[in-house]
């Protein structure tokens, strides 16, 4: 809302500099976003909140200024002379739809159409409004000054000189002043002649009764429209006008009378016409004045400060409230005030929000993070420590699996669904972007939700972790480059499991996801449950991305994994004796999983075995095709004593026998 | 044979001179050993030979000569030892020289990832509130109309709904699902889930969605909203909490100012501005020359919100006559943009490593 300082001064005395005025208005809720200085004057750009339609005009802002500086509004000149025959003999008004229009006022004016006088033109132009003609300009002027939209009909163009306010007929058409032919619905209101609609109620006038150079007599409408009806009507037509903006937020039901009088006064002042005697005022649903209580103790409880009674009275009276609690009368223009709390806010605003002392509320219980929140932070720390950077991607994507949640109004056609995986689309897009910047190594992760439709409920939202490793991390000059491969992915999962206290993960070969290389992917299980997957992207897919090397991706369902804090670690007494280890060179079928060898070793080795791991592997060379050689390191230890070579040898022999039983050959044995 | 003490002393001097002459060129352990053998050898050493030649001297003279020769022995031993130490030191220095590196070559930097700047910012915000006894609560991102709007005093057709252009969701079954436009919906859920006692002190961080896309608006962004409910909670507590929070986050030296505003679910509604941290309040591009940065919206919980919650619970738990509360909300993206001087919000969501790696994480 743009407010001209000189115009404001016609309504209230302003003695402070404009910058002070702006700061003070801002503090009470009329945020001044800018001050535009023009010769001898200034324009305040005020961001009026949607609840304060009463301040979307000069008079309303002036009222706030008057309370701010403990002065009073200057009286509004609404005097004028009436001449000619009674207005009611020239125009009749009927309201068929009181739910749409609780009040319709009109006056009949004899006008001399022409340009506006310079002062009127300049004032409108300073506010960015184009001057059109004296009568049109006056309707705009009155709206800007008092907030009440009015509409001028050419009386000669109203069939039968009779206006009816009614709901539109379904499919009825009406050409509005902007020249657009509108198809109406039964939920639109119209101001109509006996048959055809003449104006779109509360939104815009119609072309057929538009005033122009030839207009001699004007029927000037000022009505109060039901806010919701106007809002729904305007929205259905995709229209938003100065009038609808005000009416849909709730204009002043008493505004029409004042606005018509002010118009008549100004008409006379600029010599553009005269007003016929009599106000036409059809008022089928008179407003009931709200009367509210304001308990001082309630006011104190909310504001946290005692506002002296005298100051409270002064504030409320200045804003137009009358009487005393428990029957404080709410002024007609304050439709937003209907409860005690609304009055508390009015008192608080003008007491001065910055004068209220600051305190801290006492905490009555400890706060803190929940286990899942602590664990999510830890998970992030481990991943970052392992060299992966975190990304955050949009939840909406171009495509997703079956059961995805669809948006009914996506912003872009290419992002119509909520993601069902963080990987593709997701991390693969991040990879593509970074590759396009010439980046060779990409190591990233994301922690976020995926969404799945659930019949008759809110969609299921699961927290997931996904990661992607591709290329060679910045190579040191002393070393050979090694691009990421499957084992970087599975190893990362092992790292997470050990850092987070999950059971040791098990990798089961398979192709859990179609985007993965079937020979280089695995389902991840921990604690007997499948929790995700890891693998290399399919070669075709990598080629499409323009990847020179493999990209390893993985995804884990976090909801379960981080739901509970793991139990505290139990300390085990430290061994007093060093252990010993033996290496076995095992030649077996390439297809035999290393995990089977490990479990065979564990099964046969007896209780002295502490640990077993594959410490080397090779194939080819002198080995027959289809065979692989694994070096398996067995670590033995007994806490309290040194092991004898006989008992270790006994265990190793048992292991060798068991491995041979699985078709393995032991070299060097 | 030494004829006299004088004669012996002369021989000792000569021997010393010989020793010095021999020790000088001895450049390694072997050289030193042969010098030792020549002068101090038990059998054929020159000192031993001199000792053997004392037989002809009188007892007194022999004692003195013996002392003289022992001193000589100690002296030679000490010189040999010093020569050995010095040789070793030289060899050590040579080795270090041989092994020296160009220390200016790049070091082997362990791989390090970065936390996302929005996550660092969110955790910094969370930590301030955690220190004041808050819990962190997060509800669903796909919400229903009740939790996102209606319970927050925004019935259908409420003009305030225009401020939050909403993404609607098309799923079989419920017809009023949407992507939450603010995390205030979480506040409603928390109150419904924690109906006794009516004491609340939470923050709800999370992703929110609005149909908007330009350099200052992203269709997905992140908010943190807080709710405090209890007996005797007032505007004073709201102000104190927000000042404490902003001061902890940005530093005590930045003043905070409040101004009245409007949100459908709070009354009175108050916005907080922080003195511009870029220009110290003098006026710059970031603060649009005002010296103030709009940072946070807040207000006292509107009694209508408590009434909606009670209605949903089917009993009066949050009696607006008994309890009051305040709520506040701010954009995590906005705070991160101000902290780091980022001018395009969309950078947060692209995964561009050139952007992400600018942050310590
Ligand atoms: Zn600034």
Account of the protein in words:
The complex is a heterodimer of chains A (669) and B (361). Chain A is an alpha+beta fold. Chain A folds into five domains: 2-68, Phenylalanyl-tRNA Synthetase, Chain B, domain 1 (2-Layer Sandwich), CATH 3.30.56.10; 87-282, Phenylalanyl-tRNA Synthetase, Chain B, domain 3, CATH 3.50.40; 291-353, Phenylalanyl-tRNA Synthetase, Chain B, domain 1, CATH 3.30.56.10; 371-564, BirA Bifunctional Protein, domain 2, CATH 3.30.930.10; 580-667, Alpha-Beta Plaits (2-Layer Sandwich), CATH 3.30.70.380. The longest helix of chain A has 17 residues, at 645-661. Chain A is elongated. The relative contact order of chain A is 0.07. The mean pLDDT of chain A is 94. By secondary structure, chain B is of the alpha+beta class. Chain B has two domains: 5-98, no CATH class; 117-356, BirA Bifunctional Protein, domain 2 (2-Layer Sandwich), CATH 3.30.930.10. In chain B, 40% of the residues lie in helices and 19% in strands. Chain B has helices at residues 5-23, 29-40, 46-52, 59-98, 117-130, 145-148, 184-193, 235-250, 303-313, 332-340, 353-356, and strands spanning 135-136, 142-144, 169-170, 177-179, 200-209, 220-230, 256-263, 266-275, 292-301, 324-331. In chain B, strand 7 (256-263) and strand 8 form a beta hairpin. In chain B, helix 1 (5-23) runs antiparallel to helix 2 (29-40), helix 1 runs parallel beside helix 4 and helix 2 (29-40) runs antiparallel to helix 4. At the A-B interface, helix 7, helix 10, helix 12, helix 13 and strand 18 of A face helix 5, strand 1, strand 2, strand 3 and strand 5 of B. Strand 20 of chain A pairs antiparallel with strand 3 of chain B, so a sheet runs across the interface. Bound molecules: zinc ion. Zinc ion binds next to loops of chain B. The site of zinc ion has 7 residues of chain B, from loops.
